[in-house]
Write a structure and sequence with these properties.
26% strand, 309 residues, Rossmann fold, Elongation Factor Tu (Ef-tu), domain 3, 2 domains, elongated, six-stranded antiparallel sheet, alpha/beta, six-stranded parallel sheet
């Protein structure tokens, strides 16, 4: 998959894609339906999305809401067979661009799209004044096709990033998985922590969660993909997402202990899938009680993962 950060000056070979257009936060089943429609067109399959998420641009002080960072989104899209990722910088220029100008400058002059597919609730352009009707009319004028995908539902609810956030906030990663069509993952580079886990016999891989919607704090059974480095591969483990009340800290941190793993992961990239919620954060009377609980958490996680496809 090739990634493009601008719509200007594309070579002829990089134009003419069938693009699915949207933010694709989570790349859930609704998003996948949009992408599947785009894939039916006899043209290279592309995604047209934005970074940062427009919601971040317009309200930077709002609580973190994203299900995925851009790295995780790109990995998921590549697994779906996307050939071209047009990840455009969402800035003042794009935010103020009227719908008709966006069509002309970005879709037609820039990307030379063959086809555009969107969800049924899609809006675009300054003030979100552009609708699916606007897009269809523009396609007729400029000669590109337009498909509008139906909203996908799950147990009476629209599949949406909002409803997935609710499931994660309530400690229901399996319900989130049913709406996502894949496990919810936290991805990123391993950074140095306080190394307390190593001292306790449970060395952990520490990852930042800045800018992401936080699932329910606590301990999870997880599946882990080491994406880079000599020990790249798939593992199982237990992870703690929280503020570490035992040590009086209050900044969210994500720490993963990989079962049956030996090695140094600093600087490598991990993708950690939340499979099951084991328990909430707890404050213990001392280190022996904490270590006993950690051992129990790992055993329970192993049992759960052993019977999870």
């Amino acid at each position: 998959m090739r990634t493009y950060k601008d719509w200007n000056w594309l070579d002829a070979a990089d134009r003419g894609a069938s693009v699915a257009l949207g933010n694709f936060d989570g790349v859930h089943l609704g998003h996948q339906a949009v992408i599947a429609h785009a894939a039916k067109v006899p043209a290279p399959l592309g995604i047209l999305t934005f970074e940062p998420h427009p919601r971040q641009f317009f309200n930077p002080s709002a609580p973190p809401f994203r299900l995925m960072n851009s790295e995780a989104r790109a990995h998921r899209l590549e697994k779906l067979g996307v050939e071209r990722l047009y990840e455009l910088p969402f800035d003042v220029r794009l935010a103020s661009m009227e719908a008709d100008r966006f069509v002309q400058e970005v879709l037609v002059d820039g990307l030379g799209v063959a086809h555009v597919t969107v969800g049924g609730d899609f809006c675009f352009g300054a003030g979100r004044k552009g609708t699916v009707g606007t897009l269809r009319a523009a396609g007729e004028r400029h000669g590109f096709g337009v498909t509008v995908a139906d909203i996908v539902r799950f147990e009476g609810l629209d599949i949406s990033s909002t409803n997935i956030r609710v499931a994660l906030s309530e400690g229901r990663p399996r319900d989130a998985q049913k709406m996502l069509g894949h496990w919810h993952r936290i991805e990123g580079e391993i950074v140095h922590g306080e190394k307390r886990g190593r001292e306790l016999g449970y060395p952990t891989a520490n990852m930042g969660v800045e800018g992401l919607h936080l699932p329910k704090l606590g301990v999870y059974a997880v599946k882990v993909d080491v994406l880079t480095g000599p020990q790249a591969g798939s593992y199982q483990g237990a992870a703690s997402l929280g503020v570490r009340p035992m040590f009086g800290e209050n900044l969210p941190n994500f720490e993963t202990f990989l079962f049956d793993f030996r090695g140094d992961l600093y600087g490598q990239h991990l993708s950690v899938a939340l499979v099951d919620y084991l328990r909430p954060e707890m404050k213990f009377d001392g280190l022996p009680a904490l270590m006993t609980q950690m051992a129990a958490d790992c055993e329970r996680a192993k049992e759960i993962l052993a019977r999870t496809p």
